[in-house]
Amino acid sequence: MTTPSLHTKLEVITGGQMDQPPRTEKQQKQYDALSTRVLILGINAFIFSIVLVLSIPLAIATIVLGTVALKEGRIGKGKSIAGIILAAASMVIFIPVSLLIVAGIINQVKESDAQYNNPDTSQQNF
Predict the structure, then answer these.
(1) Where are the domains of the chain?
(2) Phi, psi at 18, each rounded to 5°
(3) Among 22, 26, 83, 122, which residue's CB has the most CB atoms within a 10 Å radius?
(4) What is the DSSP string of 47-83?
(5) Cα-Cα-Cα-Cα dihedral sign, residues 8, 13, 19, 21
């Protein structure tokens, strides 16, 4: 019976990530900065979820950068996850807000159309 080599034992312990060299402190700081940017983008996407034009691009950018930060960095995973959650929440808020705006526009068009077609029911001009 052969005993496993030290390299094999280390692969088992580290989950098979022996072929990647360890990251330097500078690289870890870069990924931590990326995680911070993801969190800031997520907060902005959540705040701007009422402004329809800004919400979706911010949320998509946050989710893409958040997945990159999660894949590459070991530091700042919590910030990346928080940013992704906020971006997803902004997309969830976007749907009912946009539906309410569309419903309000449709209702306003129907009311103005009814007033145009039936001038007797509208307010009288003095």
Answers:
(1) 25-115
(2) -75, -25
(3) 83
(4) HTTSSHHHHHHHHHHHHHHHHHHHHH-SS-HHHHHHH
(5) negative
